[in-house]
Amino acid sequence: MHLYSGLSTDFIRDAIHNRIAEKVKDAFFRQFRFNPPPSEVNSWRNSLRAVSQVIDDAKLHDHGILLE
What whole-number distance in Å separates Cα of residue 19 and Cα of residue 14? Predict the structure, then answer.
């Protein structure tokens, strides 16, 4: 089950602009037919933003990202 996939630059941009958690939440709903709890969405927002910062700091701009 893929909840998100794309280029690392797109992932960084989605995280910076607070779109990543909503995209993952929408994919989660499509897979399971129910919404994740708000605490889970907040956890995704915070942790994925932190991961995006690490990827950006390491200059890994020519890679792919896959979240399951």
Answer: 5
